[in-house]
Amino acid sequence: MLLLARTAFRLIHRSPLHPTRSASLILSAHTRRTHTMSPDPDAIQLEIEQQKARFNDLRKQGAAQELVDEAKKSLGDLQRALALAKGGAAGKDAGKKRERLMLKTAKGTRDYSPAEMYCREHIERIVKDCFTAYGGSCLDTPVFERKDILQGKYGEDAKLIFDLMDQGGEQLALRYDHTVPLARYLAMVGANNTHSKLWQVGKVYRRDNPVMSKGRMREFLQADFDISGTWDPMIPDAELLSLLCTIMTKLDVGEFTVKVNHRKILDGIFEVCGVPAEKIRSISSAVDKLDKLPWVEVKKEMTDEKGLDAAIADKIGEYVKHKGGPELLEKLNADAALTANKSAKNGLNEMGILFTLLNAYKVLDKISFDLSLARGLDYYTGIIYEAIVEASAPPGFTEANALAAADGTAAPAPAPKKSKKPKAADGEEEEVDESQVGVGSIAAGGRYDGLVGMFNAAAAAEGKKAHELPCVGVSIGMDRVFAIVWPKWVEKGMRSKETMAYVVSMGDGLLKERVQLVQELREAGIKTDFLAKNKPKHQAQFAASEKDEVPFAIIIAPEELAAGFVRVKEQKWQFVDGEKVKVKTEGDKGTQVRREELVGWLKQTTTLAGWSSGKLVEN
Amino acid sequence: MLLLARTAFRLIHRSPLHPTRSASLILSAHTRRTHTMSPDPDAIQLEIEQQKARFNDLRKQGAAQELVDEAKKSLGDLQRALALAKGGAAGKDAGKKRERLMLKTAKGTRDYSPAEMYCREHIERIVKDCFTAYGGSCLDTPVFERKDILQGKYGEDAKLIFDLMDQGGEQLALRYDHTVPLARYLAMVGANNTHSKLWQVGKVYRRDNPVMSKGRMREFLQADFDISGTWDPMIPDAELLSLLCTIMTKLDVGEFTVKVNHRKILDGIFEVCGVPAEKIRSISSAVDKLDKLPWVEVKKEMTDEKGLDAAIADKIGEYVKHKGGPELLEKLNADAALTANKSAKNGLNEMGILFTLLNAYKVLDKISFDLSLARGLDYYTGIIYEAIVEASAPPGFTEANALAAADGTAAPAPAPKKSKKPKAADGEEEEVDESQVGVGSIAAGGRYDGLVGMFNAAAAAEGKKAHELPCVGVSIGMDRVFAIVWPKWVEKGMRSKETMAYVVSMGDGLLKERVQLVQELREAGIKTDFLAKNKPKHQAQFAASEKDEVPFAIIIAPEELAAGFVRVKEQKWQFVDGEKVKVKTEGDKGTQVRREELVGWLKQTTTLAGWSSGKLVEN
């Protein structure tokens, strides 16, 4: 009934718990197969990556040396198998062997396990809460669009668009970002919606080379906020920058900077330096690489590849090395050559207004006016920005995501592991480990006053004036945010679900009584669970409640229940020597509570009243 | 820069406000075109549907007769144009005419406007809250899967799978439901996750013929909850049915029934009646049509199409006409022929356990044991169920969604309209209008004990025993839910965003002061907005705050502010003659509040303290 994928390799080890068995079987399988079929080097490479992750995992968990050695041996075997396969084993035949299904997600995609989703939901909640705090309304557009809507918007990157197969009907493609569907929507709504603050949270798709551990994937979540309409200069732009700073602060991503520049200033600089008009966009793209390449490389691209005069390139180099705050603006305003340029003058004026507003928003200290920021997309027409977080994807994240390989083999990541490092005391700042500091762009955006107009013009009747709608927006890369927040979340020992009570029976099962109590608690808004067994041992029930770190065990016993009582035992966890362990409560029989008073009793506890998903359950 | 879609028709009227101009232009355009190019009948048909919606809209809004007549005339013109086009106008030439982009979403998909999304978020919040109340954890899988993961799971419906284009690499397809990706995930996790309660909320895709007004689309949102693992009989099944009833009740979808049947009982009935083993699944499919077709039709399918003996069909007919509660179970238990069948006996025993549990869960009154329920999918192995809501997609919804045509032309639906009908007083039950009652399945599910094992078997090495993992789950059709909840939401006059305060300046703009106050309120958790203008008139600011129905206008004026005060004016809306109107407060100058006490003052108001997204702001 199943169609099976072709794969040369017969062994997929699903469980990291049995590396030894896998290792030995792989070799024998390989030995057998080299005679009959050509092993696929890609499949072996895949196994190698999986085995590496498993090996690292075992080491990290401090597994027995024997297990670690076995895993290492298996890795060696695989690497030899790869060498053999690349050498080109002869023959091509599936023989009588049944082809096996590869249990994996598509390349560049992954599952998010419950523990990870609990963290992601926490992140989404903060972002959406900020979006609505700033007056935003939610918009939802389809995951795929008609291909002609997306075409002509992404320049060279258009090759990264995922197309749907032509199954008769429209040509469709998966959305590449939220900006173009939003502009399409705004053009469709037309005059009915000339002013809006809209947010979108949803997945977008790019056929790029994935780097899973850095949150760079083919399917990824973006959260966008856009303000449309003709307003007074820079007020919506300042709202967005303030919103971005608020979100970054609330997400606790650590130190961050928002680089800001203005397309008009940049264009003015190019003109003043003498860049021919037709080269401005391509020279701008070269400047955009300054965050990754040194100036000599960028200059080389300008002169050698793009044929710019070296003297002109040097002039540009003098300008784009500048970054700073309002004092840089003053300096540029004192540059007579620049202020004589209409575009630059215009941009400088707007930056002045922006700085004044950002001061009122109290976010000026987060902003870096950076003349080297150019941003790739063609459609920006005003300010552009990019948020950079000092600590992006530290090793902790890479380890936690080791199973989510770049090829999408993704066995789901495990539940948060016990942290080896105690949480810093409240209010105490943890020291930054310099070796773990990276730099990554986590959000970006800018003003695009022409995009909606482009749609209107393309859709308008000949000779009809196309309606323009100025817009400014920001996109937050939620997977990058997750890459930064998740290791902290694991380290803090966060829970992975929000069940607050677990009903446990002593004695003869009491299934009906358990169900009734569970339902009463749920109806009262207390998230409650129980063990789906008729007559479970109380140890099994407590174990289940502890696995989920449920703060309240509600114990029912026949006699007590008959007398109208239940017993509540609070369960707590704490860090001991860096390990999260349950606080021992031997001899604690819990508190006897009248059954009909149970809901009220629970609700007045500080544990329940003060609960939030972002809170560590600890002493 | 844009690639433009081919379209024969030169006029797309984006704005429903100008039907007259469109009408006249269409005819002249048509006249011109018949000589030079062949008009596309599909494009005209599309325009006809749009124009129909517009015409209905105008009538509904009680527009001037002249406008209505013009729209009607335009409709007639289009219909004549269609007849002409179908008659086959000669020639095929685009001439010098510029091809125009069609601004629309893909067929069977639509945008959800902010007002609609506010309602959808409310629905999602309730569903997710119930999922976690029942101990569920969230899982997220990619929107597309490797094609071989989906293949062989959907029988005939596999033709409805959306494939991605082969762009080099894997064969991919959009997910068709959440069940198969979940089973793939559970198979991948293997022994690490033998017991779980997992929920998923996400979009799934089917290349079906859309009926947009009924919430039947090509892209639609499903909310799934699944329990995996070996538990005692029927306890997880009862949990799921209780969960389903809780959700339906909290969503306030109106009267509903959950039809329940058991595959083993059904199979037993077929065996007892004498259906040959190889015909059981196809006869079961025929039975599944009993909710749409009368018995004579179904019998005809069994005998004429599927070659079943008429006497056997009649015996089946005797059984499947039964529906009821525990008394039906008693009756079947007294049927010696049936209880002698092993499969039936097994199923009857399980139904007995289920009824006892459902009684403890207090949902027995919502359940209908219905022997005609068969469910299409092959993989169900135990109980199966389907939730039916009495009132599905009443006319109000169809009207509200008139612009979201089945072809995806979807200008986004308008913000909730003023209701013509006053809301019933609290606690008073509204009379059911029989003419508006429909029947629709809004959720469905069942037990599938073999699916994870299928994946394991397909992925396992030869001769290796495949690990089985019993599962039971439910899928809620969120677009069907929306189709039912949305018209009620509109009728109640619900708000479409949650901004709570709007800062208004009197006098000289006070932009900096407005920004500072707005930020203070936002930081205090009060969702606040202001007009992005330097020196807006106070009328414009009040109008903006009223458009969003913001409950508090915070007024700042130079002198008062200098003295340390602001003024708070509460804004309320009420229904007068079925129209939602702002409560007049002439002469009300608002309340003077110390600026530094403003946050505390607002937070102690009942309006703010009692606010929730599902609450109507009214007197």
Mean pLDDT of chain A: 81
Distance between the termini of chain A: 54 Å
User: Rg of chain A, please?
Assistant: 29 Å
Strand adjacency order, main sheet of chain A: 1-4-5-11-10-9-6-8-7
What's the helical proportion of residues of chain A? 40-55%
Structure summary, number of beta strands of chain A: 18
Q: In percent terms, what proportion of residues of chain A is strand?
A: 15-25%
Oligomer: homodimer
Main beta sheet of chain A: strand number and arrangement?
Answer: 9 strands, mixed
Pfam families (chains A, B): HGTP_anticodon, tRNA-synt_His
EC number (chains A, B): 6.1.1.21
Protein name (chains A, B): histidine--tRNA ligase
Domain Aminoacyl-transfer RNA synthetases class-II family profile (chains A, B): 99-485
Walkthrough of the structure:
- The structure is a homodimer of 619-residue chains.
- By secondary structure, chain A is α+β, with helices and mostly antiparallel strands.
- The first copy, chain A, has helices at 19-33, 41-60, 65-87, 114-133, 147-150, 179-189, 235-251, 263-273, 280-288, 295-305, 310-320, 326-333, 336-339, 342-360, 395-400, 451-459, 478-491, 511-523, 538-547, 558-562, 598-603, 606-609, and strands at residues 137-138, 144-146, 172-174, 196-205, 219-228, 256-262, 323-324, 367-370, 383-389, 440-447, 471-477, 501-505, 528-529, 552-556, 565-570, 573-576, 579-582, 591-594.
- Chain A has a nine-stranded mixed β-sheet with strand order 1-4-5-11-10-9-6-8-7.
- In chain A, strand 12 (501-505), helix 18 and strand 13 (528-529) form a beta-alpha-beta unit.
- The radius of gyration of chain A is 29 Å and the shape is elongated.
- The two termini of chain A are 54 Å apart.
- The interface between A and B is large, with 120 and 120 residues.
